[in-house]
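Before drawing any conclusions, I looked closely at one protein's amino acid sequence and its backbone structure tokens, quoted below without any editing.
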Amino acid sequence: MAVRVRRPRVRRHGRARHCRCRAGRLGGSRLRAGGGGRNYGWRNREGAHPNVGTLPPYFLPLRDPIHEYSHAEGGSITGGTVYRGANLGAFYNGRYFFGDFVFGRIWSLGLSLDMSGEATVVSVIEHTAALGQAAQNPSSFGVDANGELYVVSYAGRVYRLVLELVGNGDFGNGMAGWMTFATPDPSYIVGGVVAGVFEFYRVPPPPGSTNQAVVFQQTGVAAGPWTRFRARFDLGNSSTERKRISVLIHDANFNDVAVCTFWLAPGQPLAPYVMRGFSTMFWTNATISVYPSTVDTEPWIRLDNVTFHQTPAQGVAGTECVEPGLPAAGVAARPSSTIGERGGWPVSRPPRARDER
């Protein structure tokens, strides 16, 4: 069984301008941990380095920072917060997130406390590449009532960090992380990655029979009942025929499934779709699956930029299927249903629209 550490990604969440930054003059920027009433050495020390020694310290001992980095790595540290939420998963719980305003970088570090409560750093992970624009001039960090983490960019945006469950959602690494399945044999799904887009179709079954085909990714992530999920993906149709596609978010064993079905017009360019749903029971392996419901040999159905993550538990609504151009807030999404197996009977819930931006 492989254990994977997944990177947090970001969602844009409004506008703000604020800076909570500090630039060190000598050794660089640093982080300190501990209770009050301590002497961290200024001006006798700059971080963990000797500085002005003309006067003795006001009192001893002097406390060095638990972490520092040089001016070659950054120019002004933006103090952050310890993550205590749920959306990023257990791995990130208890990690301290911070950034550098000048260089536009964000890290998290793990903390280990000894019996006296003293903290030491056990690992440092950089998230700059994964966070993209959210890492540009990070000026402050904050948390909401659920302990979820937000990053304030001095460019005027606030971002909420979410755990991205899907790997290689842009197919930049070919089919890595993705699997296909078809009946009666694997040849009944035809496709491949072309210029970073997965293109595919379902081959008609032998006469007098039925078949199925699917491209899917199992995340390996468990989830409890009533966990809300959000999937976003680009769909397109380069054929001359109208095509139907079904997107499922479900446990890998198919005991609990939410479904959205979309019609793709002939020649439709790639466009963003959104699906929101939830679990009705414990999931051991959250999975996203894309089924080509139309059977023909007209290429291609096109798929790209797949994201899949948990969202805050702010009440449970039905499955929402949002097509390009539909309002996301205050307007009902196109009808769909959530199907959960309970005692052998399907359970259907009405759709509602909820803006999660």
